[in-house]
Amino acid sequence: RRVHGGCVSSFCFVRMQRTFYFLRHGESKYNEYTTLGVRDDAVYVTLEDAGLTTKGQQQAAEAGRKILADGISVDVVICSPLRRAIDTMNLAFPESLKIPRIISPLAAEHMAEICDMGSPPVELASLYPNLNFGHLPAVWWWTGDPAPDNAEVARQRFLETRCIEPEESFHERVRLLFEFLCSRPERKIAVVAHAGVFRRLLHIYFGKPDYTMDNCEILKCELNIPLTNGDNHLGL
User: Fold this and answer.
1) Which secondary structure element, helix H or strand E, spans residue 183, and what is its range?
2) Which of 20, 71, 212, 224 is most buried (CB neighbours < 10 A)?
3) Cross-strand bridge partners of residue 77
């Protein structure tokens, strides 16, 4: 094999640094509900795609102030399609910052409770007209098989069966999220998502086992991604 300037053949090993700013959503109405310590089915069924509480809105706004005060600069924001995450993004990384904001269902929470059921893209587009949801299918969250094409059918199935996204499905989705983040051309990436998603990401890829982020906690993580110019499998 020929060596050219420290490279073996055409395979030159380089490392592309990524800086991630992970932001968990603010307190949601479901978070507030769980503090009651008693299950109230009449309240539970109203918490589909639960939004932020007043406290959660305040937390997200404070996160936005901290981002500015600390001089945190990002090139893109990747956000879960769940409303508690979108509302947090809108307060912490508002449109006025002129940062590209991308909605990715890979960043949605582990589907385990009614709050993890999403809203159809048509509904999301009416609530957030400045964001793009055109790439989302009508039912983009995990529903079990066969996957329904109607959100109401998905809702009724969950209420009747309380089906939970299997571990292997969630694990694979987090793996795909990590690959998606690493494949981005941007060097500084913010991710607005959920406790379960971050706990799995941090455990597997960032050496932080059993780390659970608080509501609106901002966590900076850096990663050097090894690439070769002959085998750029991440698309960089």
Assistant:
1) helix 167-183
2) 20
3) 101, 190
